[in-house]
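Researcher: Here's the sequence for the chain we discussed earlier.
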Amino acid sequence: MPLDPTRPFLRQAGLRAGLTKHELDGPRFHTVFGSVRLASDVPLTPEVLGRCASLVVPRCAVSRHTAAEVWGGAVPPTAWTHVSVARAEDRRARVGLRCHVNPSAVVRTRAGLRLTTPAQTVLDLSRGLSLVDLTVLADSLLHRRVLTPAELEQRLDACQGALPRVASLARTLVRPGAESPMETRARLLLVLAGLPEPVLQHEVGDVRHLFRLDLAYPELRVAVEYDGRHHAQDARQWGHDLGRREWLDGRGWRLVVLRSGDVYGTPWATALRVAGVLAERGVVRNLPARPPASFASHFPEQPWRIARP
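Model: Thanks. This is the structure I predict for it:
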């Protein structure tokens, strides 16, 4: 079979196919993990990097951050491609590649690529991610419909008492229905501050109008929504949002709009702001002026992330 340079291949295979060392080590090809080559115009996506790794690590499965991204989950960026093997002797040392040993990992094959299942991926990352990031990941996989709550519960239950504490906490916070990582972060900010848990994707409207609210307290007619940069950049979306806000205002709803700075830069001030709105509607939570250590550990002020939507 002729060599297809748009799919990862070993340098040795390229030599056997008639390519020269100069060609294989030149600008025509990506050099990945030392011995893998790929046409330089092919993007190095997590899935492609996983396929590259499978050529140099025998019997591996793409795992952790890399598997999460392949499944479409939201996970903090990493410079590593992660794979797992069943035996320590199957590990390989390569620049940019991190091998983990996990003989009990549950693996699935997707389009010819072996990778840990979404539930296994959440479990694996519970040993490295924060509570908020882990919950964001699980919510995002539920939203992508590659994971169900039952599958996640079944995998976590199988740990039989060896479940990391962060996974035990996250399983109580994961909710189907969140449509973006920032919606999950906003919800967790409120809940971990000690405020009532809002309803996800609550629908309001009449015969002519039907609107969906990210986070809502329906009995109080209070809604909390995250507004990313796309709302301001998309004129049509912006117009829709303005019309919806007028409709909500006319029916006694109070809409609290959050931006990235509210979540990353001033999380406790944001909690106090929402608490004040709830208090106006009769639900009082006496939050302290300064954030408790437990809240600050989950939502430290991170002003350098404000630019991210």
